[in-house]
Each structure stands twice: as structure tokens, then as C-alpha cells.
Amino acid sequence: MPEQPPYLRIADELRRRIAEHVWEPGDRLPSRAQIGQECGVGENVVRRAQELLISQGVLEGRAGSGTYVAEPRQRVRMVRSSARERPDGSPFRADMKAVGRQGDWESRTDAKVPAPADIAARLGIAEGDLCVRTTYEFLGDGRPVQLSTSWEPYDLTAGTLVVLPEGGPHAGEGVVNRMAAIGITVSHAVEQPEPRQATAEEASILGIQKAALVTHIRRTYYSDQGRPVETADIVVPAAHCEIVYEIPISR
């Protein structure tokens, strides 16, 4: 059996000390040099072990202060299901309410943004065609817990009351309900989730370690005519949120 990499061994040792209450939530860990000396490894090995535990929510790094045992945090369950599309409330707010947190979001919309190549391919339009781009920070008790960037073809909604996703009489109603308001029936969505490391910007906004694990979901909504009407990149920190898919069964 291959020998366990040194940083994983150190990560297990740090977990053991936390589990045995050598260090309590909120305690500052000894320096990397001290831990390395105790465990017979270099500081870089300790750093990798700590970064792994930070990405898992066991530890937290504080700039200029050190590394601390993280306070226990209940992971938010985010349910993905077509059955949750509704006009009378936000699924995200329902997810937050289920764990006793207040859900809200902040957004910024830019109209007439040229579509980059990957977005154009997902929307079935030409590269450079104009889109409405909206960036979101979804908040739990005022702290960002999820990010999203949404793209809609400008020619689809131009001149209508729903051209701005977060403006006008249908603000905040979601893609399905907004499209229905202009006579477009959204029949289904396709989601492609994959794990990756957070970018520096994402980590800064979400309050997680740079390169921490996130789930990146590429979602595209389609009309009943088969046309893509919206595509989005959704970023969820793995340490703070779990994603559950509800699959309706037709009888």
C-alpha cells in the first residue's frame, strides 16, 4: 500500500488534536515552525495540511494573525429541483430559512455586453452578440454564500419589461417566471456541476481560503422550442454548502 503523503498525515494529526479538544473552536494554532518541529516535517508540509483543512472548513486563516480552529458551521443545503421554481418566493431564501438564516442577494446588471466565445456557444449565438449580464452575490445573514453570473441574449428581451432581471415589475422573479411574462415557456434546464479551486476573487468575496474547493455549476435554461434563453455560472463553497438534486418521477 502506498505511503500516505506527509501533508495528509499532518492534516490527520491536526484533526485528531481538534477532536480530542487539545485545541477548541476559536483557538489559535501554534506556528507552522512549531508544528513542523513537533511532527518532524517542514513548514511547507504543515502549510499544505492547514490549507486542506481550511478548504474543508475545519480551520480558518486570518490575514496577519494566523490559523485558528473554525467555529462549527452548519452547512447550508441547497436543493436543485424544477419543482422549486415558483412565483411566490425564492428557493434560496427557503434554503436559508431551513438553517435559521436570513437569505437575500445583491446584484449588478450590465446590458449590451458582447458574449465571450464560451457563453455564445452555450446560448447558441455568435461570439460578440449582445447579452444582458447580471452578477449576483447571494447572502446568508448578510455574508456571501453563493455567487452567480447570468447571461441572457439581448435580442430575446430587448424592449420588454423583463430586459433587466432585477429591475421593473418582474424584478427578482427568476428566469422561468420572467420569460413567461413575455410569452416564452421555459421547459427545462441543464446543469453541469464540477469541483474546482476558487479563484482569488471568488475566495475574497466568499471569505474562504484562496484555492479552496468550490462546486461550479454551469446551468442553462431552454424554451419549449429548444432555444437557450439564459445560462449562468454558479459558484458554491464546498465547505459551507452541500448541493442536493431532487429528481421528479413521472407516473
Automatic annotation (TrEMBL):
The keyword DNA-binding applies. One of its GO terms (molecular function) is DNA binding. Keywords: DNA-binding, Transcription, Transcription regulation. Residues 4-72 form the HTH gntR-type domain. GO terms for biological process: negative regulation of DNA-templated transcription. The keyword ATP-binding does not apply. Pfam families: GntR, UTRA. It comes from the Bacteria. PANTHER family: GNTR-FAMILY TRANSCRIPTIONAL REGULATOR, MANNOSYL-D-GLYCERATE TRANSPORT/METABOLISM SYSTEM REPRESSOR MNGR-RELATED. This is GntR family transcriptional regulator. It comes from Streptomyces griseofuscus.
